[in-house]
Request: fold
Amino acid sequence: MITLSTSLRRAAKATFAKILEHTGARPRLSQWSHVSEDGVRVLIVSYHRIVADFATDAPTGLSTLMTSRDTFRRQVRQLCNAFEVVSLDTALEVLAGRRRAARDLAVITFDDGYRDNFQHAYPVLREAAVPAHVFLPTDYIGTERALPHDRLYRALQILNRDRGDWRDLGLDASAVTALAEVQGLNANRQIDRLLAKHPTPRVVRITEQLERRFGLLPIEGVPDGARPLSWDQCREMQAHGVDFGGHTAGHTVLVHESPDAVVREIGRCSDAIAEHLGSAPRHFAYPNGYHHPAIVKALRAAHFISAVTTEDRPNRPGAGSFRLGRKVLWEDFSLGAGGRYSDALTACHFDDVFGTLALNRPVSGLGGMSPSD
Ligand SMILES: [Zn+2]
Reply:
């Protein structure tokens, strides 16, 4: 739901973006950030779902993971105009100083392997002839099972709506304690907090208890586009410039797992991609962005060469390839006053103007807790 403060913030940022554009300040700020990044700029953007129509699809699930096909097409066009859109492999070569780039570079990535990536993103990527990366939680690919956060969101929506006497629902003690700690937050914040604090299997068990209480089937009401890709769809995309990376087997937030479980999650994911797509994945995305050095060690041992976070900061040469910064996008990101697509606002985000002016604070994924915890 769009609140008054959201529309005010949106209008303020859009007006600011227009002023920067018309006065020529944005290109100057962009140049300044280039100087501070040794002249090489690598922007990695992250999407989740690409939906047919945002207004229709937003009420059906986690809207902060959704970008409409039209907005996605415009963003890709803007990326192609301002950057050379390349694969992660090329970006890593440039960041390592082994290759020179004539222009700024951008990399397009998708997390979670949603079916609508094939339905709505893939045609746009083909039309623009740009490479992209999709990070797969492999236990879900080729199934009709909804991802843990989507099931949790649906259950929390019901719980929050009937917030009166939920302690009498007969949930076990650990579920009651975990839910009490996030009471009063919106479902998005509740999911972030629960997954930041508890092992993913425990969060799944809490979800299953809620589903049983509310009489929900795990896939009931989940739109087709929010279900996982099939391996055939992956192979079709792979034949046309889409690379598939790892995102664990069970969409498991790794920072809460034992060293053995981390190795198993990464190994199972890598083996499934090798089996179905012909070669082992080389790039990885940390579920919910959380990581620590032992996870990096396990990834290196499994022959991964890079990993992306959800930390919104520029990628600088020599910074290492297992903590790459990414800008996480969704529909709201490009909408200016009146909810219309704003080229100026989008350009400001892509140029990291709000980060340069310290209006955005990057959130670290190191260790697994958000700054507010
Ligand atoms: Zn994910």
User: Anything to note?
Assistant: The two ends are 25 Å apart (CA to CA).
